[in-house]
Structures are given as C-alpha cells and as structure tokens.
Design brief:
Helix content: 25-40%
Structural class: alpha+beta
Order of helices and strands: EHHHEHEHEHEHEHE
Number of strands: 7
Distance between the termini: 45 Å
Shape: globular
Largest sheet: 7 strands, mixed
Radius of gyration: 19 Å
C-alpha cells in the first residue's frame, strides 16, 4: 500500500485529520484524548467540530507548530460501515488520511523569543462543577514536566497517531522520521511523551526512555463523580529523549537539562 507523507497546508484538511485523530485515540482509549477533546457539546459531532476548530486555531497561532499527514489512495475491501466511517477521512486532494503528527520546532527554549510554552488552562472544558479544575491540574502536571526538560532549542512530538486499520504499515515511522531528520539538521535534541505501545517505534528512531511517569489529578474533597473523572484522566506514559544526532555513548552522553 503506497503511503505519502506531506505537511498540512490548508485548513480544509483539518476536519479529516482530526476525525482520524479521534478514531485513532479511541482505539484503544487514550486518557489524554479526553483531556484535550472532552464531550463539551450536546452531540459527539459538535464536540468533534469544536476540537477541530480549536486545534486549527492553535496551529495557525503557534509558530512552532508543524502538522503532517500520511495518506493513501488504495486499500483492501471494507464493510459498508467502514466505508462510511472512512469517507470522512478524505483530504483536499482526494486522498485518505490514515495518520497524523504534530511536531513542535523550538528555535529557543519553549516560552522564549515568541516560541510557545508555559502553562495552559483547559478553557475548552465546561466550567460547571470542578471538572475543569481537575483537568487543569492534569494539564499543569504535563506542562511543568516539559518545562523542566525542554531547556533550549529542540523538537517535541506533541501528537502522533495512526488509524487502527492502517497500523504497522510504516505510517508511524514516516511521521517520526520527519522530526528526527529536522532535529539532526538543527543539531538539537528531541522529546516525546510516549505510551507503552509507542515506545518500540520511537526506540527504533533513536529515542531512549528516561523515566516512566503518571499524570493524575487530585483535588480536596472530591465526590464520586470527580473521582471517576480523575481515574478516566489518569495517564501513564514514558518520557523519551533523543540525543543530538541520535548518538548515545554510555557514560558520556548527557541530556541537555542535566548539564
């Protein structure tokens, strides 16, 4: 199956891109998808439309943002239900989006010199009750960890997904390879917050697991509903680092944030 990697160059490609993102992150369910794309509208389609518009706005406002898609024009036989689902994945060139990635390219440390960084409140969450407060706590944990590690020019793979029916065909490697090549061109480190399933792919591209961590919000006096939401948003991940050039020498190579 021929696969093509290309940058997202038109707003028209965001609806199929973010629809593919939703399908990918729900198989299996990923708590971070719920954090960034909660059911914040009356229907699932309206919530998806809000998430699409918001991510487009973030991309257009962020000079570090580089979105990529992997597309194909040919695949095997599918059921009627699969055909209907995938009709929403067709991009502006008539190709089917089967994966995507968001690479942040920081020419200075995040938050310096106009590059995006710092804490982000979950303003897209409904404000009733304390749900948004809990979401803000989880988001803050993630952003603080990034701030501790991303101390200079670098690349960060913020999002990477492949449609469940098109995994293990090379799409993930194409999406990761763009960033590693860019990091090598710039002579900088690269970072990823990975799921357990993603670790083997990233290791093939020179990333190393630095530590395992858990994002888990805690508030005082949580009722049953908040405790249930806390569990739904709890995310276990692996902080991965790729040294400059992907070159690691035991006992010699030191991550930039430890120098």
């Amino acid at each position: 199956m021929p696969l093509t990697l290309s940058p997202i160059s038109t707003p028209a490609d965001f609806p199929p891109l973010i629809r593919c993102q939703k399908i990918s992150y729900l198989t299996p369910p990923d708590p971070l998808y719920t954090l960034f794309c909660p059911p914040n509208r009356p229907t699932p389609e309206e919530s998806l439309a809000e998430a699409t518009q918001r991510q487009l706005q973030w991309h257009q406002a962020d000079p570090t943002s580089n979105w990529f898609k992997v597309t194909t024009t040919s695949d095997g036989e599918k059921t009627e239900e699969e055909e209907e689902e995938e009709s929403g994945l067709v991009d502006s060139q008539g190709r089917k989006i089967i994966g995507g990635a968001l690479w942040h390219v920081y020419h200075k440390a995040p938050g310096e010199g106009g590059d995006e960084g710092g804490d982000v409140g979950c303003y897209w969450w409904p404000e009733e009750g304390r749900k948004r407060e809990l979401a803000d706590e989880v988001m803050g944990q993630m952003m603080r960890t990034r701030g501790e590690r991303l101390r200079g020019p670098c690349l960060l793979l913020g999002i990477c997904f492949v449609h469940p029916r098109y995994r293990r065909l090379g799409a993930g490697s194409q999406l990761v390879s763009w960033g590693t090549a860019k990091a090598d061109e710039m002579g900088v480190e690269a970072f990823i917050e990975a799921t357990k399933d993603g670790v083997p792919l990233y290791e093939k591209h020179g990333f190393r697991v630095m530590n395992e961590f858990t994002l888990r919000g805690e508030l005082k006096d949580m009722d049953e509903g908040l405790r249930r939401l806390r569990d739904e948003l709890t995310w276990n991940g692996f902080f991965m680092w790729r040294p400059v050039g992907g070159r690691w020498v035991e006992g010699v190579t030191v991550p930039g944030w430890l120098k």
